[in-house]
Write a structure and sequence with these properties.
The mean pLDDT is 92. The protein has a five-stranded parallel β-sheet with strand order 2-1-3-4-5, sandwiched between helices. By secondary structure, the protein is of the alpha/beta class. The longest helix has 14 residues. The radius of gyration is 14 Å and the shape is globular. It has a single domain, classed as Dehydroquinase, class II (Rossmann fold, 3-Layer(aba) Sandwich), CATH 3.40.50. The protein contains five helices and five strands. Helix 3 packs parallel to helix 4. It comes from Dokdonia pacifica. This is 3-dehydroquinate dehydratase. Belongs to the type-II 3-dehydroquinase family. Pathway: Metabolic intermediate biosynthesis; chorismate biosynthesis; chorismate from D-erythrose 4-phosphate and phosphoenolpyruvate: step 3/7.
Length: 137
């Protein structure tokens, strides 16, 4: 099984940015832990702060992976384009969020991705990614 993790804007700052919300560990360090734990799965990871690049990563994954774990971060709430890209591909997408977006500002309650996602996991910190992987097994 091949899974692609796609992270959106500012997630490159995990471990530094608002640790009270996002924790103190970088995603790169956490990703190494996932690779060890799920060594029987081919995991790859990409992060971009640029909306168009995220759309391209989603489209490209459709022919190369069995599924996507997508944390579009702030673009979740603003990007019709990312939502359309998820709706246009054949492979399943699990939408993840580190924080409970429903416990935050009201604008974060809207997702342009959820409608097309196989499922949504939020509020479990970095463990949200682990739960998403488990959903594919």
């Amino acid at each position: 099984m091949k899974l692609r993790i796609i992270n959106g804007p500012n997630l490159n700052l995990l471990g530094k940015r608002e640790p009270e919300i996002y924790g103190g560990k970088s995603f790169e360090d956490y990703f190494k832990d996932l690779q060890i734990k799920y060594n029987h799965i081919e995991l790859s990871y990409v992060q971009s702060n640029i909306e168009g690049e995220l759309i391209t990563h989603i489209q490209d994954a459709d022919t190369m992976y069995d599924g996507i774990i997508l944390n579009a971060a702030a673009y979740t709430h603003t990007s019709v384009g990312i939502g359309d890209a998820v709706g246009a591909i054949e492979i399943p997408v699990i939408e993840v969020h580190i924080s409970n977006t429903f416990g935050r500002e009201e604008f974060r309650h809207q997702s342009y991705i959820s409608k097309y996602a196989k499922g949504v996991i939020l509020g479990f910190g970095l463990q949200s990614y682990d739960l998403a992987i488990q959903s594919f097994l």
